[in-house]
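Notes from hallway chat w/ T.B., transcribed later so I don't forget. T.B. wanted the structure written out for a chain they're using in a teaching module, and asked if we could keep both sequence and structure tokens in one place. Agreed to drop them here.
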Amino acid sequence: MKAALTSTLAVLAMLLGWEALVRGRAVSADLLAPPSAVLEALLRHPEILLDQGISTARETALGFLLACLIGAAMGAALSSAALLRRVAMPWVLALQIVPKMALAPLFVVWLGVGAPCRLAFAVFIAFFPVLIGTTAGLAGTDHGALRLCRVLGAGWWQTVLRVRLPYAVPHLLAGMKTAATMALLGVVIGEFVTAQQGLGYVVMFAASLGETALVLAAITLLCGIGVALYGVVLLAEWAFARWYGAPMPAGEFG
């Protein structure tokens, strides 16, 4: 509670300082619109921002879900087969090393400028942290606990649910936290490239007109989408801790 109050007060102080700098003409409003102008833009264009925000949020959520499923499935496969891991990991790492923006035009060539392109690019960017988290979690399962399961005659499913999963899920959730932000980034980059719809399109269009208040209003909604998706992962983390009776880990802000 104290940490949340401190963070809230810090944000309010930053917004007030920002407003004061622009009002005092230390910073031009044409270059950086004050928070009051951003709020005005949100209230002046609610239908456009809401409509485009829903499009971005829907594609981000779907991209995040697919990235988690694909990343977890690939991580489970790689952790269970050493040969597959040695063959596949260099290719996966090579794809991650390549700058993502350099590959975005290829997705347009392959999939066109519609939602499938943006969705595929979001999955491509976001699946890697989940894959690494799942692989590390399953591979890091305590060998003593696994030997004890074999001695006690535990079945495969019992071992997975009672031993492997508790070891892997914290790593998986850590990867999902990163994937939540990466999925949003992938969708926005796709909106920049395809320039058809979404908050990324609003940012590009408003920037071309010099409407910095509208740009910041769209960015504010993007931040809200990212925070909401991150909050879903935190809720899953809390549910996992309650399910297994483990103490809640210290939060990033506490």
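Follow-up for T.B.: DSSP finds ten helices and no strands in the chain. Might be a good example for the class.
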